[in-house]
Amino acid sequence: xxxxxxxxxxxxxxxxxxxxxxxxxxxxxxxxxxxxxxxxxxxxxxxxxxxxxxxxxxxxxxxxxxxxxxxxxxxxxxxxxxxxxxxxxxxxxxxxxxxxxxxxxxxxxxxxxxxxxxxxxxxxxxxxxxxxxxxxxxxxxxxxxxxxxxxxxxxxxxxxxxxxxxxxxxxxxxxxxxxxxxxxxxxxxxxxxxxxxxxxxxxxxxxxxxxxxxxxxxxxxxxxxxxxxx
Length: 230
Fold this sequence. Notes:
two-stranded antiparallel sheet
């Protein structure tokens, strides 16, 4: 993560200095890593066009990521806790979130991407096909995010999606009796459930509730429907 680059790198003790540490049970080592690396706030990821990924963490502890730069084995074990314990939020109100997610996963590499367990992203992008029929469809860039999660985030347990803006308007104006709307939600659910490790899907409406029939249908799919910002 880019936040790591801004920290001074401590001197590295010899491997023999870690013999006692690695004699501890792995569960105890992971408890130590968690005490150091698990944070109360989500980690917010953002990227300006043409720039590297940036990370923002409220109340960031001093030299928080120093463990990652001490010893190779410590680094691997600590990264599993860093990425597997904390929640990462893709902070992008534009329609570039697929690019942001791709950049983040590329930045941290496939091993660390496989440790991720909690992500918060925008709800997959949907759009009107035409104003006359009222039909909608899932956009290709909405599918891109879901495919990246399926391919790269093999340990993802909790996925929270945020509904706002144009997507919120389309969803809140539709009734589940609309065939194309129902079909799109079923397609999204199929993509969600293709993430084999996923056991919790949260859909949060930030700017207005959907119709009661839509909420009920989403709950029948196994989604947790929440209203309002955190």
